Amino acid sequence: MAGGRNIIVTGASRGIGHATALRFHQEGWRVITVSRTPPPGQCPWSLGRSHILLDLSDLGNIVRCIEIMRGMLDGGELHGLVNNAGISPKGPGGSRLNSLNTDVEVWQSMYNTNFYAPLLLTRGFAAELSRGRGAVVNLTSIAGSRVHRFAGSAYATSKAALAALTREMAFDLAPLGIRVNAVAPGEIDTSILSPGTPEIVERDIPLHRLGTIGEVADLIWFLCSTQATYITGAEIPINGGQHV
What we know:
The protein is of the alpha/beta class.
Protein backbone atom coordinates (compact mmCIF):
# COMPACT_ATOMS: atom_id res chain seq x y z
CA MET A 1 0.00 0.00 0.00
CA ALA A 2 1.08 3.58 -0.65
CA GLY A 3 -1.07 5.28 1.96
CA GLY A 4 -1.56 9.01 1.60
CA ARG A 5 -0.45 9.18 -2.03
CA ASN A 6 -2.63 11.15 -4.44
CA ILE A 7 -2.86 11.02 -8.22
CA ILE A 8 -4.97 12.85 -10.80
CA VAL A 9 -5.89 11.05 -14.02
CA THR A 10 -7.68 12.84 -16.87
CA GLY A 11 -9.81 11.07 -19.45
CA ALA A 12 -10.44 8.27 -16.95
CA SER A 13 -13.84 7.02 -18.07
CA ARG A 14 -12.53 4.41 -20.50
CA GLY A 15 -9.51 2.89 -22.20
CA ILE A 16 -6.00 3.76 -21.02
CA GLY A 17 -7.20 6.38 -18.53
CA HIS A 18 -9.61 4.02 -16.81
CA ALA A 19 -7.04 1.21 -16.68
CA THR A 20 -4.50 3.64 -15.21
CA ALA A 21 -6.90 4.86 -12.53
CA LEU A 22 -7.69 1.26 -11.59
CA ARG A 23 -3.96 0.39 -11.44
CA PHE A 24 -3.19 3.15 -8.97
CA HIS A 25 -6.33 2.49 -6.94
CA GLN A 26 -5.27 -1.15 -6.57
CA GLU A 27 -1.87 0.04 -5.32
CA GLY A 28 -3.57 2.03 -2.57
CA TRP A 29 -3.32 5.53 -4.03
CA ARG A 30 -6.17 8.00 -3.75
CA VAL A 31 -7.32 8.52 -7.33
CA ILE A 32 -8.97 11.77 -8.47
CA THR A 33 -10.35 11.66 -12.01
CA VAL A 34 -11.95 13.85 -14.65
CA SER A 35 -13.64 12.90 -17.91
CA ARG A 36 -16.34 14.20 -20.22
CA THR A 37 -18.37 10.97 -19.85
CA PRO A 38 -19.19 9.11 -16.61
CA PRO A 39 -16.90 6.24 -15.58
CA PRO A 40 -18.35 2.76 -16.16
CA GLY A 41 -20.14 0.90 -13.39
CA GLN A 42 -19.43 1.78 -9.80
CA CYS A 43 -15.81 2.95 -9.84
CA PRO A 44 -14.39 3.34 -6.33
CA TRP A 45 -13.19 6.90 -6.93
CA SER A 46 -16.54 8.08 -8.28
CA LEU A 47 -18.31 6.52 -5.29
CA GLY A 48 -15.91 8.46 -3.07
CA ARG A 49 -16.82 11.72 -4.86
CA SER A 50 -13.39 12.00 -6.42
CA HIS A 51 -14.62 12.24 -10.02
CA ILE A 52 -15.42 15.38 -12.00
CA LEU A 53 -17.55 15.38 -15.14
CA LEU A 54 -16.07 18.08 -17.40
CA ASP A 55 -15.14 18.49 -21.06
CA LEU A 56 -11.53 19.70 -21.24
CA SER A 57 -11.94 20.98 -24.80
CA ASP A 58 -13.17 24.21 -23.16
CA LEU A 59 -10.39 26.32 -21.60
CA GLY A 60 -12.78 27.60 -18.95
CA ASN A 61 -13.52 24.03 -17.89
CA ILE A 62 -9.80 23.34 -17.47
CA VAL A 63 -9.54 26.25 -15.04
CA ARG A 64 -12.65 25.03 -13.20
CA CYS A 65 -11.19 21.53 -13.04
CA ILE A 66 -8.03 22.79 -11.36
CA GLU A 67 -10.00 24.76 -8.78
CA ILE A 68 -12.28 21.82 -7.92
CA MET A 69 -9.43 19.32 -7.68
CA ARG A 70 -7.34 21.65 -5.54
CA GLY A 71 -10.24 21.66 -3.10
CA MET A 72 -10.24 17.85 -3.12
CA LEU A 73 -6.54 17.85 -2.24
CA ASP A 74 -7.23 20.32 0.58
CA GLY A 75 -3.79 21.89 0.28
CA GLY A 76 -2.01 18.56 0.43
CA GLU A 77 0.56 16.84 -1.72
CA LEU A 78 0.11 15.52 -5.25
CA HIS A 79 2.31 12.58 -6.18
CA GLY A 80 1.18 11.92 -9.74
CA LEU A 81 -0.58 13.65 -12.63
CA VAL A 82 -1.50 11.64 -15.72
CA ASN A 83 -2.54 13.86 -18.62
CA ASN A 84 -4.36 11.20 -20.60
CA ALA A 85 -7.44 13.01 -21.93
CA GLY A 86 -7.34 13.32 -25.69
CA ILE A 87 -9.69 13.64 -28.65
CA SER A 88 -9.19 12.56 -32.26
CA PRO A 89 -12.25 13.33 -34.40
CA LYS A 90 -12.67 11.54 -37.71
CA GLY A 91 -14.34 12.44 -40.97
CA PRO A 92 -17.20 10.58 -42.70
CA GLY A 93 -16.80 6.82 -42.42
CA GLY A 94 -13.86 7.22 -40.07
CA SER A 95 -11.76 9.06 -42.64
CA ARG A 96 -8.64 10.99 -41.71
CA LEU A 97 -8.98 14.75 -41.16
CA ASN A 98 -6.15 16.41 -43.06
CA SER A 99 -4.52 19.83 -42.70
CA LEU A 100 -6.31 21.35 -45.71
CA ASN A 101 -9.96 20.87 -44.86
CA THR A 102 -10.26 20.55 -41.08
CA ASP A 103 -12.18 23.46 -39.51
CA VAL A 104 -10.13 25.75 -37.28
CA GLU A 105 -12.71 25.20 -34.53
CA VAL A 106 -11.85 21.49 -34.59
CA TRP A 107 -8.15 22.30 -34.35
CA GLN A 108 -8.76 24.61 -31.38
CA SER A 109 -10.93 22.08 -29.55
CA MET A 110 -8.33 19.36 -30.08
CA TYR A 111 -5.45 21.54 -28.95
CA ASN A 112 -7.37 22.58 -25.84
CA THR A 113 -7.81 18.96 -24.79
CA ASN A 114 -4.57 17.44 -26.07
CA PHE A 115 -2.11 20.27 -25.38
CA TYR A 116 -3.43 23.15 -23.27
CA ALA A 117 -5.08 20.92 -20.67
CA PRO A 118 -1.76 19.15 -19.83
CA LEU A 119 0.02 22.53 -19.79
CA LEU A 120 -2.51 24.26 -17.53
CA LEU A 121 -3.03 21.28 -15.22
CA THR A 122 0.71 20.79 -14.71
CA ARG A 123 1.26 24.49 -14.07
CA GLY A 124 -1.82 24.65 -11.87
CA PHE A 125 -0.64 21.84 -9.61
CA ALA A 126 3.09 22.67 -9.60
CA ALA A 127 3.08 23.56 -5.89
CA GLU A 128 1.25 20.38 -4.87
CA LEU A 129 3.46 18.25 -7.12
CA SER A 130 6.57 19.87 -5.67
CA ARG A 131 5.45 19.13 -2.11
CA GLY A 132 4.87 15.51 -3.09
CA ARG A 133 8.04 15.18 -5.22
CA GLY A 134 5.55 14.08 -7.83
CA ALA A 135 5.69 12.80 -11.40
CA VAL A 136 3.78 13.95 -14.47
CA VAL A 137 3.05 11.55 -17.34
CA ASN A 138 1.73 12.94 -20.62
CA LEU A 139 0.08 10.66 -23.15
CA THR A 140 1.46 11.45 -26.59
CA SER A 141 1.19 9.15 -29.61
CA ILE A 142 3.12 7.42 -32.37
CA ALA A 143 1.22 9.82 -34.64
CA GLY A 144 3.23 12.69 -33.16
CA SER A 145 6.38 11.54 -34.96
CA ARG A 146 5.07 10.22 -38.29
CA VAL A 147 2.10 10.56 -40.62
CA HIS A 148 -0.47 8.03 -39.45
CA ARG A 149 -3.01 6.39 -41.70
CA PHE A 150 -5.97 7.28 -39.46
CA ALA A 151 -4.88 10.02 -37.05
CA GLY A 152 -5.60 13.46 -38.48
CA SER A 153 -3.26 16.42 -38.81
CA ALA A 154 -4.62 18.38 -35.85
CA TYR A 155 -4.34 15.35 -33.57
CA ALA A 156 -0.84 14.49 -34.77
CA THR A 157 0.52 18.01 -34.39
CA SER A 158 -1.08 18.42 -30.95
CA LYS A 159 0.71 15.26 -29.81
CA ALA A 160 4.01 16.41 -31.33
CA ALA A 161 3.60 19.69 -29.46
CA LEU A 162 2.89 17.78 -26.24
CA ALA A 163 6.08 15.76 -26.71
CA ALA A 164 8.07 19.00 -27.00
CA LEU A 165 6.22 20.44 -24.01
CA THR A 166 7.18 17.35 -22.00
CA ARG A 167 10.86 18.10 -22.53
CA GLU A 168 10.39 21.79 -21.71
CA MET A 169 8.44 21.08 -18.52
CA ALA A 170 10.94 18.44 -17.44
CA PHE A 171 13.63 21.12 -17.58
CA ASP A 172 11.53 23.85 -15.99
CA LEU A 173 10.13 21.72 -13.15
CA ALA A 174 13.28 19.78 -12.22
CA PRO A 175 14.33 22.45 -9.67
CA LEU A 176 10.99 21.85 -7.93
CA GLY A 177 11.66 18.12 -7.66
CA ILE A 178 9.02 17.23 -10.26
CA ARG A 179 9.70 14.69 -13.02
CA VAL A 180 7.88 14.96 -16.37
CA ASN A 181 7.78 12.15 -18.92
CA ALA A 182 5.61 11.04 -21.82
CA VAL A 183 4.26 7.69 -22.99
CA ALA A 184 3.65 7.35 -26.74
CA PRO A 185 1.25 4.47 -27.49
CA GLY A 186 0.88 2.90 -30.91
CA GLU A 187 -2.07 0.66 -31.72
CA ILE A 188 -3.74 -0.17 -28.39
CA ASP A 189 -6.82 -2.38 -28.08
CA THR A 190 -9.52 0.14 -27.15
CA SER A 191 -13.05 0.92 -28.31
CA ILE A 192 -11.89 3.71 -30.66
CA LEU A 193 -9.77 1.65 -33.07
CA SER A 194 -10.21 2.45 -36.75
CA PRO A 195 -11.58 -0.23 -39.11
CA GLY A 196 -8.24 -0.64 -40.93
CA THR A 197 -6.22 -1.35 -37.78
CA PRO A 198 -5.84 -5.14 -38.42
CA GLU A 199 -3.92 -4.33 -41.60
CA ILE A 200 -1.53 -2.08 -39.64
CA VAL A 201 -1.02 -4.82 -37.07
CA GLU A 202 -0.07 -7.34 -39.72
CA ARG A 203 2.06 -5.05 -41.88
CA ASP A 204 3.71 -2.55 -39.49
CA ILE A 205 3.98 -4.10 -36.00
CA PRO A 206 6.82 -6.63 -35.52
CA LEU A 207 5.03 -8.24 -32.54
CA HIS A 208 1.91 -8.71 -34.75
CA ARG A 209 -0.59 -7.82 -32.06
CA LEU A 210 -2.31 -4.88 -30.46
CA GLY A 211 -1.10 -3.53 -27.17
CA THR A 212 -3.36 -3.71 -24.13
CA ILE A 213 -4.53 -0.88 -21.92
CA GLY A 214 -3.05 -2.79 -18.97
CA GLU A 215 0.41 -2.72 -20.56
CA VAL A 216 0.21 1.06 -20.97
CA ALA A 217 -1.07 1.48 -17.40
CA ASP A 218 1.87 -0.59 -16.13
CA LEU A 219 4.32 1.73 -17.90
CA ILE A 220 2.61 4.80 -16.44
CA TRP A 221 2.77 3.18 -13.01
CA PHE A 222 6.50 2.58 -13.43
CA LEU A 223 7.15 6.21 -14.39
CA CYS A 224 5.33 7.43 -11.28
CA SER A 225 7.03 4.91 -8.97
CA THR A 226 10.24 5.10 -6.97
CA GLN A 227 11.85 2.84 -9.60
CA ALA A 228 11.92 5.75 -12.07
CA THR A 229 13.27 8.57 -9.91
CA TYR A 230 16.14 9.33 -12.34
CA ILE A 231 13.97 9.42 -15.46
CA THR A 232 12.68 12.77 -16.67
CA GLY A 233 12.19 14.42 -20.04
CA ALA A 234 11.72 11.07 -21.79
CA GLU A 235 9.10 10.01 -24.32
CA ILE A 236 8.79 6.23 -24.16
CA PRO A 237 7.21 4.40 -27.11
CA ILE A 238 4.89 1.48 -26.38
CA ASN A 239 3.93 0.13 -29.78
CA GLY A 240 5.17 -3.43 -30.29
CA GLY A 241 8.06 -2.17 -32.44
CA GLN A 242 5.90 -0.17 -34.83
CA HIS A 243 8.39 2.73 -34.67
CA VAL A 244 11.42 0.73 -35.87
